[in-house]
User: What shape does this take?
Amino acid sequence: MTTIKSRIQDDLTAAIKARDELRSATLRMTLAAITTEEVAGKSARELSDAEVIKVIGREAKKRREAAEAFRKAGRDEQADREEAEGQVLAGYLPQQLSDEELAAVVAEAVAEARAQGAEGPKAMGAVMKIVKPKVGDRAEGGRVAAAVKQALAG
Assistant: This one.
């Protein structure tokens, strides 16, 4: 069993014993998503830690999007719940890059792409190909794309 998955299961046991409803419900949903991913496809398999992190990242993104939708609909209580679940999941994800760190990586990639002949807004794809491997799971794709657009525009 992967170390992250076993850590989630241990944390779930502790949350149930502590009667922490929010944490236990969130961890149960996450374990269900991991199990679904493991049995998807032609044969069941054990996920690696990197694959488990991707599943947790997807679940965290769902929570952010749901919270945003609930806020727009004026359902603040549900939005608060989704945000709290997202905070629980954030504890299992790699430390996110700060805006300054992301901007530095993007600026370096833009300079590299320009050296290869890519210019203006059309260079977006070339810059993203350089940035994505450097950033990995430490920044969400939408955030990276926005930083690249800003760097190319100005």
